[in-house]
Design brief:
It is a single chain. It contains 14 helices and no strands. The protein is an all-alpha fold. α2 crosses α14 and α4 runs parallel beside α14. The longest helix is centred in the first third of the chain and has 37 residues. The radius of gyration is 22 Å and the shape is elongated. 38% of the residues are buried.
Length: 277
């Protein structure tokens, strides 16, 4: 039923098709490109789009189209892995806080409040600099800082569900706390988590782009959409060579738009109480 509702949502399906195209272009990058990803060619530096270089070349003569597809691998992977990290942390902490309540809930919620009140980018930049910028550390930084919303969401669901009859029946049958949390309550709270995770992928992609643009994320020569945008720091490139920075910018925009459309579609499909458009 949820799939039928999702499929009936044209905007959600549009977002899904865009995501599929972006994912396939990233996975099949070796078969869709014919230039070396990282090899510079100073003789071909800063050339506009042509038959040889469909999207032109950058300041080192590297093919922008090739790096764009390979950059999609990094940006999409960072988004997915970072969300997987913070969903795991948020679900575990939120489930424990909501199920046990009392002192455990107070301690976890105070930690959550502390993390939430600190602005994301200053803390992320500090952590990225301390850990040394890399693909893996970018995933880790975003994952370790993004769990608070999921935690509060799961906690609220558990506070509602822990007093239901099926939980009391599970306790009466001798089920352990871990079994009640993960086998009985969590499956009934998974829908909002799925929606939040889907929407979180777009935020993670944007966070990676921001960190890489500032030089604290994915490092050259490894391409990502974010560090390809850093070429726009030059006024000359920004005004006279849009083929260098415009394609990665459009890819980031397309990916985030698609993720948001899919997330809204999942929200409507998994919670029909929100109404049908």
């Amino acid at each position: 039923m949820a799939w039928r509702r999702f499929r009936a949502n044209r905007r959600a399906m549009l977002g899904l098709y865009i995501l599929i195209i972006l994912a396939l272009s990233a996975v099949l990058a070796p078969y869709l490109t014919w230039h070396d990803r990282d090899l510079p060619d100073v003789r071909a530096a800063e050339q506009p789009p042509s038959r040889t270089h469909w999207l032109g070349t950058d300041e080192l003569g590297r093919d922008v189209y090739t790096r764009l597809l390979y950059g999609g691998r990094i940006s999409l992977t960072v988004g997915l892995v970072a969300v997987a990290i913070y969903v795991t942390i948020g679900v575990v902490l939120g489930a424990v806080a909501g199920y046990y309540g009392g002192v455990v809930d107070s301690v976890i919620m105070r930690i959550t409040d502390v993390v939430m009140v600190i602005p994301f980018f200053p803390l992320a930049l500090t952590m990225a600099a301390a850990l040394r910028p890399s693909v893996y550390n970018t995933m880790l930084v975003i994952g370790l800082l993004g769990w608070t919303g999921i935690c509060r969401l799961v906690r609220g669901e558990f506070l509602t569900l822990r007093s239901r009859e099926f939980v009391a029946a599970a306790r009466a049958s001798g089920a352990s706390d871990a079994r009640i949390i993960f086998r009985h309550i969590l499956p009934n709270a998974v829908a909002p988590v799925v929606v939040a995770a889907a929407l979180g992928v777009g935020t993670a992609i944007l966070s990676e782009a921001g960190l890489s643009f500032l030089g604290f994320g994915v490092q050259q020569p490894t391409p990502s959409w974010g560090n390809m945008l850093s070429a726009a720091l030059s006024l000359k490139v920004l005004l006279l060579q849009p083929w260098i920075w415009l394609p990665p910018g459009l890819m980031i925009f397309s990916a985030i738009l698609a993720v948001n459309l899919v997330g809204e579609g999942l929200r409507d499909a998994l919670d029909p109480r929100l109404g049908r458009r």
